Amino acid sequence: TERTLSIIKPDATRRNLTGKINAKFEDAGLRIVAQKRVRLSLAQAETFYAVHSARPFFGELTEFMASGPVVLQVLEGENAIAKNREVMGATNPADAAPGTIRAEFAESVGENSVHGSDAPETAAEEIAFFFAGLEIVG
Ligand code: GTP
Ligand code: MG
């Protein structure tokens, strides 16, 4: 079993979609083993997305992520990283498969409702960035 970091982004919390998104995770067999709702500072968003700092949309992305509440989560399950990305759907909702979170809920490529770690190393780093070990209960 594997763990991944998930973030429900401000466009989704603003539209009161946390429960509907969590149902998608649980229906796919992912367990929510840690969860907290926070508002990120711009500095925290910039540190979290530092890998994208050279991209033209970095300012837009980090300002968006700091624009409202987010729900930080650790999801656990068999192949949790790949499974979560499958449930999320493609980055651009226009390309996301029917039934995925982004197909159903995302508003645009920037305001795309969820984040999910993309590999075991980044999952471990991202989980450690937001959660203490005692906050994760499998
Ligand atoms: P994450 O799970 O959020 O990392 O999404 P991803 O892995 O599907 O996409 P990627 O890592 O390539 O990009 C990270 C995030 O940057 C995306 O989820 C979007 O929120 C944002 N992003 C990507 N491309 C664009 C873009 O062209 N414009 C804007 N405004 N944001 C973008
Ligand atoms: Mg990514």
UniProtKB/TrEMBL annotation:
InterPro entries: NDK-like_dom, NDK-like_dom_sf, Nucleoside_diP_kinase, Nucleoside_diP_kinase_AS. It comes from the Bacteria. Its cofactor is Mg(2+). The active site is at H115 (pros-phosphohistidine intermediate). GO terms for molecular function: ATP binding; metal ion binding; nucleoside diphosphate kinase activity. It is an enzyme of class 2 (transferase). Homotetramer. PANTHER family: NUCLEOSIDE DIPHOSPHATE KINASE, NUCLEOSIDE DIPHOSPHATE KINASE DDB_G0292928-RELATED. Belongs to the NDK family. This is Nucleoside diphosphate kinase. It comes from Pseudoroseicyclus aestuarii. The lineage of its organism: Bacteria, Pseudomonadati, Pseudomonadota, Alphaproteobacteria, Rhodobacterales. The gene is ndk.
